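hey m, so remember when u said the tokens were messed up on ur end? i reran from scratch. heres the input so u can diff it against urs
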Amino acid sequence: MEKTIEKLRKNGFEVTRFATGEAAAAYIGESLRGKTVGIGGSMTVRALNIYDRIKDDNTVFWHMVEPGDETMVKASSAQVYITSVNAISEEGFIINIDGRGNRVAGTLMRKEKVYLLVGKNKLAGPFEEAVERARQKAAPPNAKRLECRTPCVMDGKCHDCASPDRICNALVVLWRRPFWCESMEILLIDEELGF
């Protein structure tokens, strides 16, 4: 884990390590006041109850609370964006797979701050293994959760399918912190969280 943290920092990402998800959630709750905040689809964010922690002091857009395309667009263009990742490679590269593109767009558009909440289970080996982790360990359970009609829902394995319900339509790799983002902070949590 320490080597990955070192590589992430060399790639321009801030990294703050937390023993628990509760501590990471409290950190975000204390950090945000008076901002527009977008939240991407994330079981980690949901498990840590981030929305309830920040909604009273900020204007928050999250499609898991208020469904619809308009909410997703507002979330992507907010001052601050919060989500998780599908994997982080040992080289310090961040890998995300998305179906609609709204979650990855939120990490790519100009922001004051991006928070990426990452459980230790998201740390992978080399780049190829991290991509494989995203496709095989993150995507199938997400497709099942969303009740998609995809082959991976049946057997838990990615088939690189052509289903209209496919949630693996965009792969985004952040090799380094994008120059437009004032701060991209990875909250690395010593617990297993999310898919």
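this time it looks ok to me. DSSP finds eight helices and nine strands in the chain. if urs says something different then somethings off w ur setup not the seq
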